Amino acid sequence: MYVVRNLTKHTIILSDIRAEIGPGKMLDLEKVAHREAIERSADLRAAKKSSRLRLIGNDVASKPKLKPAETSVINQITERIIEKPSENNLDEEKLEAIMRKILSEQIQPSAAVNTDQILDAVIALKKQLATTDKSSPDMPNIDPTQFADLQSKAVEKLSETIETGVKKTPKKVKLKNTKSSDLANELD
Amino acid sequence: MCACSLDVGTMFLVKGELDPASDEPEFTVERNCFLQSASTDDTEATLKENNWSYAKHGDNFYILGEDSIKLKNLLTISGKDENIVVTKIGELRRPMQHGILNTGEEKLSVAIIQKLIANLVGSPRLPNEVICFCAPGDPVDRDLTVIFHRTMLTNFLKSLGYQVECIPEALAIIFSQRPVAEDADGEAPFSGIAFSFGSGMCNVCFAFKKMPLINFSVAQSGDFIDRESAKVAGVDVAAMTRYKENNFDLDKVDYSDMRQAALDIFYQNMIENALNNFSEKFNQLDNQIDVPLEIVVAGGTASVPGFLSKFKSVLSGLDLPFKIKDVRLADDPFYAVSHGCLIKAMSIENKSKTSKSENAAKNPEEKRTPKTKLI
Question: pTM of this prediction?
Answer without folding.
Answer: 0.69
